[in-house]
Amino acid sequence: MSGSGFPEVVVTLRRAGCVFAEDEATLLIEAAAGDPRRLDALVGRRVSGTPLEYLLGWVEFRGLRVGVRPGVFVPRQRTAFLVDQAVDGVAPGTTRACVVDLCCGCGALGLSAAAELTARGCDVELVAADIDPVAVACARENLAPLCAPVFGGDLFDALPVDLRGRIDILLANTPYVPSARVADLPPEAREHEPLTALDGGQDGLDVFRRVAEGAAAWLAPGGTVLVETGAGQIDTACAVLTAHGLLPRVAESEELYATVVLGTRDPG
Length: 268
Hints:
This protein has 10 helices and 9 strands. It has 268 residues and is of the alpha/beta class. The strands form 2 sheets. The chain has a 7-stranded mixed beta sheet, with helices on both faces. A two-stranded antiparallel ribbon has the order 1-2.
């Protein structure tokens, strides 16, 4: 395919089953920066199933270009709805907020939430954590401009103890695909992304349960934990939050096919 231009790239991608072939062709040609051999290599890897975001080195999330690298979970566009819910839940005029991005992956959720709240005049203290060293390294690069620390470790064990009881917004993009359904995921996900970011256990809520169990102790009074789930997991997730002393609420977006379960600590 050496020397090929936009039409040829589009045809090649379309034959490989890329639904948005025109958009992808534009991005790959931009990434190749005029080097035909590099373009051939990028298109070849895309045709073989490598996620587009890995080839570009970034993903667009809520208007931001967030760096990603092979082996890091690529944030889904529907998860922007979770961030919308978090930001919309902050009362107008709020001047300070402590935001934690747990299971942060590349750090896209914390980065975008902090950017929007800061634009409103809110002073954001952002902290992120993930159990995967590759994700931690990626998130540290993305959050470095905000001077936000990223810690490696298992859920709350990774966080500094001085955050306990003062987190206003706890973003937790936990895995929620039931183990038996992981094999049904698109090849781009199951063959390239870390299993720990996909497999949620028997009913998909294993990690969610652990987050809910610790959330009440780490949230500030009135603070909220937000987790994306499947639509069929709503009742179980709400029951889990209630059992751990949190007031549950559900938000759904038909447009984005997104479901977010929120649990708020009693303000008193």
